[in-house]
């Protein structure tokens, strides 16, 4: 079964992850909100890792074509 195409492109996912990181850096103390944000951050990190892996695979493919 093919992977579902992500709704977020790399830039949007990275920007959202940066926003969440900034929230944590502010020292907010709401545990429930923090857990929700952490869960979203982990999902974004997984998605970004997938984008980076796809880019790496494409680079390898291009390099192989031109060797």
Characterise the protein shown here.
The protein is 76% helix and 0% strand. The longest helix has 35 residues, at 31-65. α1 packs antiparallel against α2 (31-65). The chain is built from 2 helices and no strands. It has one domain. With 67 residues, it is mostly helical. It is elongated and about 55 Å long.
Radius of gyration: 16 Å
How would a crystallographer describe the biggest sheet? none
How many domains, as an integer?
1
Principal-axis shape: elongated
Q: What distance separates the N and C termini?
A: 32 Å
Which stretches are low in confidence, meaning pLDDT under 50 for 5 or more residues running? none
Number of helices in the DSSP assignment: 2
Number of strands: 0
Order of helices and strands: HH
Helix content: over 70%
- Beta-strand portion reads under 5%
Question: Whole-number average pLDDT?
Answer: 90
What are the SSEs and their pairings?
Blueprint: H1 10-25, H2 31-65
Helix pairs in contact: 1-2
What attributes does this structure have?
mainly alpha, 67 residues, 0% strand, elongated, single chain, 76% helix
Please sum up the structure shown.
The protein is mostly helical. The protein is built from two helices and no strands.
